[in-house]
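HUMAN: Quick job: go over this next protein and say how the chain folds.
***
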Amino acid sequence: MRSLTIGQYMRPSLAHLPVQKYWTPTEFDQLGEMARSLGFSHVRSGPLVRSSYHAGEAA
């Protein structure tokens, strides 16, 4: 199984790097579809998705 998570960097404080672009949910959907077309069988793609997001379900 090839899995992939795609999420948005969120600036945790003013001491961290600023966000250069906020991706839209539609853009995340498109990225997810592209990943599936490349052979990823399990894709989570969205602005609040993290690598640990539903990790138990993915395993």
Remarks:
- The chain has two helices and two strands.
- The mean pLDDT is 89.
- Residues 3-10+22-58 form one domain.
